[in-house]
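Section 3.1: Structural characterization of target chains.
Under the original work plan, the team committed to producing a structural model for every single-chain target entering the pipeline before any wet-lab resources were allocated. The record below documents one such target. The sequence was received from the expression subgroup and is listed exactly as submitted; it comprises 273 residues.
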Amino acid sequence: MPGAELPLSAAGSTAGKYGAALYEALRTRRSMRPLIEQDPSLTIDDAYAISLDFLSRRLNDGEKVVGKKIGVTSKAVQDMLGVHQPDFGFLTDWMFVEGDIDVDGKALIAPRAEAEIAFILKDSLNGPGVTAADVLAATECVAPCFEIVDSRVRDWKISIVDTVADNASCGVYVLGAERLDPAGFDLPGLHVAVTKNGTPLSEGYGHAVQGDPAQAVAWLANTLGVYGVTLDAGDVILSGSLVPLADAVKGDRFEMTLSNAGGPLGTCIANFV
């Protein structure tokens, strides 16, 4: 049952022990106690090592990395989670959803919907020293997007260490059909409106994520560069939520509309079945 607590094995290195536990939680759809409760000495560097171990187990299952994501970029999300600095995670082909989101098939435990702007890169970015202008030059297009975040940590009781270790609390993601040239728009000024089951839910602007979604992607490139990881040509980059997270259950339908002063630019739908 989703939400049942998963025991933690004591075997192996710190990264291997917690990476194995998170992997098991994903595959069995069972949550676990916060990592920072189990070991208060864990650091953010430890958490990224755990995240990489967790990812390696998924890659061994045949998943492929197709992008990266930024988490906890906006004040609204930071305040909701009590986590006050950004983090990052990896996107795999298994996380990409076309059409409806199968809650059971994707082993989602406690999903929440985030409306975002996704960047699709035509060139690689390798930090440090990457600027927002570099990001725009390397971007083929942007697209409206829902990231469905999820937590293998019980009841979303997360610290920065917990969410970093848990692949930045990523579940799955959905892209809208529109592909937009970012050079043609004021990204910080783009507006998003979100409905849930046909009722207005939230709205926000591009500047909610570090003042500019392109700046958020530059932060990601520079932060990943410290760990020897690049943003690669063809990658999908999720730049962070423009609105507060919204709980989702089977039967919920979220729709976001991205627009500017000239009118609607694109939509994305997250329909949970």
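The chain has one domain: 64-271.
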